[in-house]
Amino acid sequence: MIKKITCIECPQGCQLEVNVEEGRVIGLTGNKCPKGDVYGRQEITDPRRVLSSTVLAKGLEIKMVPVRTDKPVPKSKMFAVMEEIKKIRLTRPVAVGDVIIANVLGSDANVAASREVGP
Fold first, then answer.
1. Domains of the chain
2. CA–CA separation, 115 and 97 (whole Å)
């Protein structure tokens, strides 16, 4: 079966055609760079995304602090990661990149602040 996907690894947006049999990639065409090959294969076998969200802050200059994962997490864990993020209540100032949740759900990704927030 041929699956058509658009690569999102660089601005070229290559139109990939991935030949899949029994859940395995047996061929891939359409990529103009090596990143497309890696992306296309992973998108079929283990799709992942960077997750951006906000956490509630108490006693800080803003009420919601933007956060994001520092690396992609499996799409199958996205809702569970969101549930973990919902549990957080920040009460201390943070800098960009400060880890809010380390190794969230064993995914090897950290949830980190994406904005500096003072008291």
1. 2-45 (no CATH), 52-113 (3.10.530.10)
2. 8
Q: Which residues of the chain have pLDDT under 50?
A: none
- Distance CA(38)–CA(25), nearest Å, equals 11
- Summarize pLDDT for 59-84 with one digit per residue, the tens: 999 999 999 999 999 999 999 999 99
Helix and strand counts by DSSP (H, E) for the chain: 2, 10
State the pairing for strand pair 48-49/73-74. Answer: antiparallel
pLDDT, residue 105, reads 96
Q: Kindly give the residue spans of alpha helices, DSSP state H, lying in 1-119.
A: 34-45, 78-86
Angle CA(50)–CA(97)–CA(54) in degrees, nearest 5? 55
pTM listed for this prediction: 0.80
Measured CA to CA, the distance from residue 112 to residue 45 in angstroms comes to: 27
**Cα 42 to Cα 36: distance, rounded to the nearest angstrom:** 10
